[in-house]
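Listing S7. Sequence submitted for prediction.
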Amino acid sequence: MTADPVPNASTRVRRFPTLGPELFDALREDRPRRIALQVPAGLVRNATDLAERIREETGIPVVLAGRACFGACDVPSRDEVPNADVSVVLGHAPIPNVTLPMPTYFVEMRVPAEDPERLVRTLEAAGIPRRLGIVASVQHLGLVDPLSEALTARGYVVRVGQGDRRLAYAAQALGCNYTGAEAIAGEVDAFLFLGTGRFHPIGLAFAVDRPVWSLDPLQNTIESPIDRPALVRRRQLLVASVRNVERWGILVSTFAGQNRTATALALQERARSRGRQAEILSFARIDPRDLEGRNVEAYVNTACPRIALDDSALYPKPLLTPPEFLMAIGELPLDPYRFDTYH
């Protein structure tokens, strides 16, 4: 039986900066019967310790969602955690236009802002352009304002963009949506990403035709720009290789934050109008193993765009994004390259 919503939950979505007293007080106040805890892949090793801490602090039973969370687009469903009536999701901010299956507490795991003057000296030494747009992972959004002020005081022109309805914050990076950066791309010569890893810099490089520098605020290290032309060229060569494909599979995810069924139906209609065969395949999480042995020549993915851009080598057949598919059937030119922004 599916659990009823928490009777006294005041809102369906709540945000907390860290896993700390503010979150624990809210959980005790709302008195859920059981908490579902979902952690990102980087915290799976610590998941049992985190669950135990929440249980000790609140006195409420905790069940761990079995799969790692790659974003606020794939929070656990009631079927995955049938005895839980609230979710605690670590490491992500809510996506404002995604309807959630139960009351959800997003713990953004904010990092205290580093000394901006120290970071500016590193940026100056690297010779970054002086007209900059700033984009950050949610953990480092608290650094955006102080760093912008410090850069401005040194003569830099700094811009911060507000994205569309899928983004909770100005300057926020989301793997499927960089509309905040796109809004200011014409005003800057380069972008500076605040955070760790290459996931967001690569996505940002696909989305904006500007150099993307990366600053790790914790280590005070900077990486030179992603080679955008090489990224785009690889995708364009893939598109060119499937222009004569006759049998397409169109992939749809049933996750609330990734379900673009309307897009899939529109792509199917466009394919058929061009004399191609196209069938829609529906999954929860899209897995390369589920596509093996099918009588399909290539796929177009309408779920998270990063599946095609980052993981296509894992798939048994070519895997395109919707804009790339339209390029392949001749409805869009290869250039300029279009990032598959999920709105």
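Caption to Listing S7: primary sequence and predicted structure tokens for the chain studied. The radius of gyration is 22 Å. Residues 228-241 form the longest helix (14 residues).
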